[in-house]
């Protein structure tokens, strides 16, 4: 007989596997936070010491019997494993427990499904769910027999399972085509920002590090921020004005987590590309988190996977309000370049220091100043306006044109050299700091 999958339920037993290699083991506290974020009512938390995994249940048969009894006593409707289960293991455990079984990937997918707000976010979550489900279609069907012969009963000759797989492949293809359109639209918007020479800055970091709270504090926005994992799924972009630099585009992105399922990285590639195409990454770190070093490593691992590990990065140590004796400050390297900013986004302390550090890092290759041009240099003036580099224009008493500019130094060097001047000499003589 084929197994009919049990119905829904939120009362859950959490099973954590202990005694594994520390590099592949999961954090039990983070596991409980994930379950609460999904809306589960935790009936019991069970830690299983296991060095070797079994092919049938992942855990030993004796522990399976013990958990089966616990499920009945606690009247649990769901058992969640803090580990990746194969489709057959998940199916075997459901038969043994007579309730639904979910692994870590399925739990994260469920949280993502709850959090997605925009059409794009929902498409990305659905894609990840369908690709995860494609290996698990074997369960939950009791009508897999081939369609019967006879007049009026002859069908295409495929089982219900084969039909479902075919329909699933069609839906996955449709979603990928839509996301490809979203990706091209994002790239078009990025090209427009690059033409206007507006730097892009992305907030990245471990989930629940305070990225959305910092984003709201900097941009006076009202992006959803909560003390829960994966509160933000859909990227949000806002324009932010920085002194001595001009406008930048700040992006709030999805948080990372250890062993983030590869299917999620693939599905959210269009979103994560917002980070990989930035001029600067602000790596937001929970300064109060005991395992912040491990979280930093996980963020670097995901950035490497999406090709953003070589981008300029500024570390932002957040949640100083939870620490004693540390005031907001900027840490610099031997050359005086900002490396880290310590602040509290919730209390708004240290935000000006962060803006200062961002302006310093982005302004290294920017010319921000005033050019004094004679009236005969109307062509150069027009080229500056065409580039969108002019912030303000005035005339002095001699009739010279005073242009307050903001553009890459390479661009102003090119324009000046075209007029027959040496760039450094021109800028030194005609820049009013």
From TrEMBL:
Subcellular location: Cytoplasm
PROSITE patterns: G_HFLX (PS51705)
InterPro entries in the record: EFG_III/V, G_HFLX_dom, GTP-bd, GTP-bd_M, GTPase_HflX, GTPase_HflX_N, GTPase_HflX_N_sf, P-loop_NTPase
A molecular function (GO) term: ribosome binding
Keyword terms: Coiled coil, Cytoplasm, GTP-binding, Magnesium, Metal-binding, Nucleotide-binding
Binding site for GTP: 205-212, 230-234, 252-255, 318-321, 344-346
Pfam families according to UniProt: GTP-bdg_M (PF16360), GTP-bdg_N (PF13167), MMR_HSR1 (PF01926)
Cited CDD domains: HflX
Similarity annotation: Belongs to the TRAFAC class OBG-HflX-like GTPase superfamily. HflX GTPase family.
Summary of subunit composition and partner proteins: Monomer. Associates with the 50S ribosomal subunit.
Function per UniProt: GTPase that associates with the 50S ribosomal subunit and may have a role during protein synthesis or ribosome biogenesis.
PANTHER family cross-referenced by the UniProt entry: GTP-BINDING PROTEIN 6-RELATED, GTP-BINDING PROTEIN HFLX
HAMAP family named among the record's database cross-references: GTPase_HflX
Designated name of the protein: GTPase HflX
Annotated organism of origin: Pseudomonas fluvialis
Gene: hflX
